[in-house]
Amino acid sequence: MESSETAVDIRALNEKIEKESAFIDLLMMEVNKSIIGQKTMMERLLIALLGNGHILLEGVPGLAKTLAIKSLAQAVEADFSRVQFTPDLLPSDVIGTQIYNIQKNEFAIKKGPIFANFVLADEINRAPAKVQSALLEAMQERQVTIGEETHILPKPFLVLATQNPVEQEGTYPLPEAQSDRFMLKTVITYPKKEEERLIMRQNLKGGFEEIKPVVKLEQILKAREVVQEVYMDEKIEQYILDIIFATRKPEEYRLPSLKPLIEFGASPRGSIALASAAKVHAFIKHRGYVIPEDVRAVVKDVLRHRIGITYEAEAENVSSEDLISQIVDQIEVP
Prior knowledge:
Layout (H helix, E strand, L loop, with lengths): L1 H19 L2 H9 L7 H12 L4 E4 L6 H12 L3 E5 L6 H5 E6 L4 E6 L6 E5 L6 H13 L1 E4 L2 E4 L5 E6 L12 H4 L4 E4 L5 H12 L12 H12 L5 H15 L13 E3 L3 H17 L7 H12 L4 E2 L1 H5 L4 H11 L4
Parallel strand pairs: 1-8, 1-9, 2-5, 5-8
Antiparallel strand pairs: 3-4, 6-7, 10-11
Helix pairs in contact: 3-11, 10-11, 11-12, 12-14
């Protein structure tokens, strides 16, 4: 009797999710007016937005990272601010500061660019640790302290940081504990030849169509709540935990050869982020339940910055992505 009830529940849930996630296609269509290709990047941005997380985009300059974020903010009718990170940036340039008002003989708060729904931290690895930690505190606590006053950041609040993997001179790499705060780290690759032909033509023609707001912020906040209702079976939970635990103790999962290559595995933040991202992925695909493919689709983005590799792995030219691939191939799919 119980299984038929569950089946009905899933059917009802599926219908609800289908209805609630209809705006995703509309949003994607609107953003695609200015972004050609880069479907994975756009999906990952939506996963971070609906999963209440933050995202780190890594790619060489000119791959439309900034444009994608800007376009998403325009389509969602949200406040957008951009901070170009430089070595001389100060924390007050990001979060704001107190300014003395002579007429009133008192300090007034001048809020920084962090008070927006979408904050683009461009080239985050260019700024010193002090600035990075000010931004990361805001990401974690969703609030900022200026002087003695604490200010709550707007909802939704999404930090999209970019970093350029090519130039390492004059950069301050994000420490592991800080990059762990990002729900996803997405590596962006070059467009396909056909896509680049379209990009070239559109730009020579004089740019792209203007993006209009098609989704309200309230819809995004409601969708975040609905995402929580996406059904995740215990078998899927077990699958996620097996993947996470295999990054910590590979020898227990018949992967002894990985032990000398992994310095440290994913933290509990990794398992939370993986479960959350898998739910949002199912939601984006208009499904009311999580399947193993959802987990596999997001596993690299969730874990690539959460696994530390040893010098031995570096010497053998093994990346954290290679390790994730081996683990996912080894763990039994439910």
